[in-house]
Amino acid sequence: MTQTHPGWPEAYAERYRRAGHWSGRTFGALLRSWAEDRPGRTALVDGDRRWTYARLDAEVDVLAAGLRRLGLRRGDRVVVQLPNRAEFVLLWFALQRLGAVPVHAMPGHRRTEIGHLVRVSEAVACVIPDRHARFDHRAMLRELLAEQAGSGTLRHVVVAGDPGDHRDFVRLDDLLGDASATGRVDPGDGDAASGDLALLLHSGGTTGLPKLIPRTHDDYAYNARAAAEVCGLGEDCVYLAVLPLAFNFTLACPGVLGTLTAGGTVVVSPDPSPQTAFALVERERVTITSLTPPLVPHWMDEAASGEADLGSLKVLQVGGARLPDDVARALGPAIGVTVQQVFGMAEGLINVTRLDDPEELVHTTQGRPISPDDEILVVGPDGRPVPDGAPGELLTRGPYTPRGYYRAKAHNRIAFTPDGFYRSGDVVRRLPSGHLVVVGRIKDQINRGGEKIAATEVEEHLLTHPAITQAALVAAPDEKRGERSVAFLVCAGPPPAPRELAAFLNERGLAAYKAPDQVVPIAAMPLTAVGKIDKNALAGMLSPG
């Protein structure tokens, strides 16, 4: 197979094997061993449907055989765009058992993003729902196939639901076939090796089309296992998958894979609303779940009604973006949980606050690395390390942080140092304890007449205003100052005027130049496919002047 991305140097690979980080087992083999160890335990719940570990393993065999009949083989890339339903888990493991490679797409991706993922990965198949969130994914794939007619790699479209009238679309249920006629598919049948590519994640940035992140069986299994160990998951844990299953946070931090590794139960939530989630927490006695910050106020409001029994819920992880300190302080008492901040990236490194950390660290930091072999550098503009407590760009390498993007040789020379550190673009402060405080992004900065404004800092102060429930600060072109700052606000009641905000921020000790030049009230924040505030969309609402 042609080399599509840099691997770990052999000296590092051997080091990670000796440390026990890399197990030498594929996900197809891991699922088989879990089923043999705990056949009757409940592995997966989706609505009224339930799978024991044994049943999950058997149905993965059946689906893997169906995919093989379709023509899929080891190394084939398959774009997977399914909403939160059990079929995502079944399909993901079936592809692993064949040695095929799922390419993760978010439910909100459309033709531009899906076409990009197909082209870059050279995918031979796409798996989609028929309709989701009032969007017809079949029509999108028909357009995509027409665009690449005669020149593309895409040969198969598999539909979860009704394939419609397209004669070449295959119904996912039809691939399940007859279990008795299919037989057992051994994990070795696909000839996958633990160092092979296991999946392609898409980068979580909000600028440009997503880059693809290559994850191997060895590194991604360790990613999930190490996160599960740090989070104290065991056979009694019940994880509620609220965010998209294709999201790295939901799948492996520790998420679905960490829960299954620990012998627990995964419950799939079809949507992230607190009403849906709280009903599942009560019914399935959920113990842990994960949210992004924009969802937190809605969950707190719903919990205040006191209608749901949330007594089983012990840990609420929040990640994907910076959780403001004041919100972190209020969240635990509001829902009756231990808050765990998670700062990670699909490119690898995961940091979490520990469940026994002092409250001040939980409320004001985004955790510390999960692996003893995670290497961290915090550097200034000159590339030299800065002292603890000083802000700088986070660079990292380690046993689950790949050494380059997929088919992105030119970009890899910018995104990675010659000795393999990933340049995250995140600005952090490292405390003597090793905990990291996220200050912002290198590019999430407003240059207002030479004065640099860190958007994250101002947003956190804005969110302490009693009328403001969500805030995002973006740069707008300005003839006099180069850029001006614009605060998009979601408010409970009348929005504060710029002068009122300036006075409020002044009282909090913020420099005057950091006060927003303009305030734009909006009903709701636009979100990216992974639930982050979409600042590109906000910037698109503005015009020069």
UniProtKB/TrEMBL annotation:
<dbReference type="GO" id="GO:0016878">
    <property type="term" value="F:acid-thiol ligase activity"/>
</dbReference>
<dbReference type="InterPro" id="IPR025110">
    <property type="entry name" value="AMP-bd_C"/>
</dbReference>
<protein>
    <submittedName>
        <fullName>2,3-dihydroxybenzoate-AMP ligase</fullName>
    </submittedName>
</protein>
<dbReference type="InterPro" id="IPR020845">
    <property type="entry name" value="AMP-binding_CS"/>
</dbReference>
<feature type="domain" description="AMP-dependent synthetase/ligase">
    <location>
        <begin position="32"/>
        <end position="406"/>
    </location>
</feature>
<keyword id="KW-0436">Ligase</keyword>
<dbReference type="InterPro" id="IPR000873">
    <property type="entry name" value="AMP-dep_synth/lig_dom"/>
</dbReference>
<dbReference type="InterPro" id="IPR045851">
    <property type="entry name" value="AMP-bd_C_sf"/>
</dbReference>
<dbReference type="Pfam" id="PF13193">
    <property type="entry name" value="AMP-binding_C"/>
</dbReference>
<dbReference type="InterPro" id="IPR050237">
    <property type="entry name" value="ATP-dep_AMP-bd_enzyme"/>
</dbReference>
<dbReference type="Pfam" id="PF00501">
    <property type="entry name" value="AMP-binding"/>
</dbReference>
<feature type="domain" description="AMP-binding enzyme C-terminal">
    <location>
        <begin position="457"/>
        <end position="532"/>
    </location>
</feature>
